[in-house]
Write a structure and sequence with these properties.
Structural class: alpha+beta
Strand content: 5-15%
Strand order of the largest sheet: 1-2-3
Oligomer: single chain
Number of helices: 4
Distance between the termini: 58 Å
Largest sheet: 3 strands, antiparallel
Helix content: 25-40%
Number of domains: 1
Shape: globular
Length: 113
């Protein structure tokens, strides 16, 4: 498989899966430019609105197939479970799959023997 045509499968419980194409730097730049003008809904922070839109655009650009019998399209992508979108966007190179562990010492034990 060539570098420009790579795909990755994200596995979920119950045998469900999503096949994704990694996010390219060109696509990421275009998406970031597109979300720059997003206006938040009342009560929503601008960064939050931009994050949701960036995730939506990335999912639409990168999902190429899935185990669901419904077609891969914008309407069905919007129906994906919220938590699953974190795993999918991490697989395409946007965000983290897990919350990173705090940095610093691994123990606060200061006892002296």
């Amino acid at each position: 498989m060539s570098l420009l045509n790579q795909t990755k499968r994200v596995e979920f419980d119950g045998g469900e899966w999503v096949e994704v194409r990694p996010l390219s730097i060109g696509a990421l730049r275009a998406m970031r430019q597109a979300v720059a003008s997003i206006e938040p809904a009342p009560g929503e922070e601008k960064e939050e609105a931009q994050g949701f839109e960036l995730s939506k655009l990335a999912l639409e650009a990168c999902i190429v197939a899935w185990s669901d019998p419904e077609p891969v399209n914008s309407e069905n992508i919007a129906k994906l479970p919220y938590l699953a979108t974190f795993e999918i966007t991490a697989a395409v190179g946007l965000g983290d799959q897990q919350t990173p562990l705090p940095s610093g010492p691994s123990s606060t034990d200061t006892s002296v023997e």
